[in-house]
Amino acid sequence: MEIVTEVENHMFATDLLNREMALSNYHGVNTEIIACGPNAMLEKVAQIADERGIPCQVIMETLMACGVGSCKGCAIPKKSGGYFHLCQDGPALPADLVDWEKLKRPSVIVTEERRVPVEKINMGVVLVGQSGKQLILPSPIILESGCLDEGAVIDGPVDLTYVGAIKSKGLTLEPRAGNPPPRVCETPSGMLNSIGLENVGLTKFISEQLPLRKSLGVEVIVNFSGATVHEFVEMAVKLAEAGVRVMELNLSCPNTEKGGQMFAVSYGDTEEVVAAVHRAVSEAFLLVKLSPMAPNVVDIAQAAAYSGADALSLFNTYLGMKIDLVTRRPAIGNIYGGMSGPEVRPMALRMVHLVCQKVSISVVASTGITCGEDAAEYLIVGAQAVAVGAGIFSNPNAGPEIFHGLRKIVSDYGMSDIKELVGSLIL
Predict the structure, then answer these.
(1) Cα dihedral angle (166, 172, 174, 179), rounded to 10 degrees?
(2) pTM to 2 decimal places
(3) Could you confirm whether 71 is annotated as catalytic?
(4) What angle do CA 295, 374, 6 make, to 5 degrees?
(5) Could you point out which of 149, 329, 359, 388 has its C-alpha 20 to 30 Å from the C-alpha of 203?
């Protein structure tokens, strides 16, 4: 037996196989090649075996779900058409019967010598809005609304060095006490929350909290909600007068003039409120935060973009529910709560991809991001930046860690600028 590695021996297992085939005469000898490993290697082994007329069995590494042939998830294409099912027909399959062309998903990770040193990678991003407006950020990482207040940053261990911007907690015109407890509960891979927008109100925010946020040394994005179009406009004007240049409209709040329906689920309501705020504070950079609960998120996104949004924040939380089996009551005092965390990221990723294909303004993605890989997925489908929320609760310094992880991925692809990653999805 001989073991070779690419690093230590500067050769692949297939190089060893080729050498062995050249040194020995296997014709007429009862010989069979059995190989296991990644598909690219197995295809090369199959080719070597075919050229020499030697039978070959390949042990595939395709994921299996049920393991008994029920779900049909572990499909391997046949040259003759149809599929092998690895849990029943394998895991070893005749190499000459596998359709290797249909299995090809080549890696785009570059070799070490082609990688740009991480310290030379440009991680700055530019969110491009209406009429040439721009929001220039030194990093694509934004800290999400409601997860870190100014006190937690000033007095806590949070490092803002690699953060592009920080959002304020959701603000309303008047102070709000919030929803009855329990307000949060754990889910299998995330959490439910129903805080109810507890906040100090606009006046106190401007006089007490805004100066502290401005002192943090990063871009401040003020997130706010209104019960009516007039309230949204009144708040936007007062924030602009207080020197706020970047605002985020939270449209996942009920429109009391339309029977309590969320602004973000109605094309007309979204269009009306965004247009009104845009007219009132046309110099401000305006992000619009949408809900994944809308019947057609793409239509709502287009309505916001058409009406004056400079960028879209995708998304607010999904509505969910959990039962406390000890009390047989809802685990959340308000019955339903917003579900966030890695469990909902695949659904959000799909919708971000759909929206990015239909709007020309920038997109900030903000669901289930806990590491650089999560952030990279959103940028690859078209988002220009990401906002980190619930991930901060388990790791207050998630922002810098995500930044470094994302920068390494950019290097692994041989890129020198984070903007090269945006919209780079291969189909």
Answers:
(1) -100
(2) 0.93
(3) no
(4) 140
(5) 388
* Active-site position among 56, 87, 185, 253: 253
DSSP per residue over 273-340, as a string?
A: HHHHHHHHTTTSEEEEE--TTSS-HHHHHHHHHHHT-SEEEE--PEEE--EETTTTEESSTTS-EEEE
**250 is written with which tokens?**
């939270």
Distance between CA atoms of 74 and 62, rounded to whole angstroms? 6
Nearest to 379 by CA among 347, 427, 419, 426: 419
CA–CA gap between residue 125 and residue 385 (Å, rounded): 7
Of residues 140, 159, 164, 110, the one with CA closest to residue 377: 140
Q: How far apart are CA 325 and CA 119, in angstroms?
A: 51
Q: How many CB atoms lie within 10 A of CB 252?
A: 22
Structure tokens at 107: 């890696």
Confidence of residue 10 (pLDDT cuts 50, 70, 90): low
pLDDT at 17: 84
Q: Which residue in 241, 242, 221, 223 sits closest to 135, CA to CA?
A: 221
Percent of the chain with pLDDT over 70: 96
Q: At what angle do helices 297-307 and 267-280 cross, to 10 degrees?
A: 20
Neighbour tally for 73: CB within 10 Å: 14
